[in-house]
Design brief:
3 helices
Length: 154
């Protein structure tokens, strides 16, 4: 469960009237919506710059660029919870009178790192299923307790 921002484009071209009604139906207690907005401004041209990483390394300093540069069957495995990789991209150019937004497009997959010897927290699972907002509260408390990740030397 991660906090984040999401932009969802909606095609309102076929819509009529002077109001917009949205229905959000997430699983109970799974998401919290802190802010919703609609931008009715005219579309503007967008300049897209595709950036490629210039540095990619693991905490041990091993160069990961060859593994990460192409969409293939090569992966950087991080088998332990807390494993990290450092990836640095050049900053996109600043254009006068324009705002700069960066979006990461990545590929990969993961396996959950579960501890099979730990006792199941059935009370928490029941709370998440029965109490509105419990999943968000649980995620937020764990997020606040996460270790601070230091930058790797490169």
């Amino acid at each position: 469960f991660l906090a984040g921002q999401l932009v969802v484009p909606l095609d309102l071209g076929a819509g009529r009237g002077d109001s917009l009604r949205l229905r959000l139906r997430p699983p109970r207690g799974f998401w919290a919506f802190n802010y919703l907005a609609v931008d009715y401004s005219a579309d503007q041209a967008v300049q897209v710059d595709t950036l490629h990483p210039r540095i990619a390394s693991g905490p041990d300093g091993v160069d990961l660029l060859p593994v990460l540069l192409t969409a293939d069957t090569l992966y950087h495995a991080m088998p332990m919870t807390g494993d990290r990789a450092f990836i640095e991209f050049p900053a996109p150019p600043v254009r006068p009178g324009r705002e700069r937004t960066v979006i990461l497009h990545s590929r990969g997959f993961y396996h959950l790192h579960l501890t099979p010897t730990a006792d199941a927290d059935t009370a928490m699972v029941r709370r998440i299923a029965e109490v509105s907002g419990a999943a968000v509260q649980f995620s937020a408390s764990h997020y606040r307790q996460r270790p601070v990740v230091a930058r790797f030397p490169h």
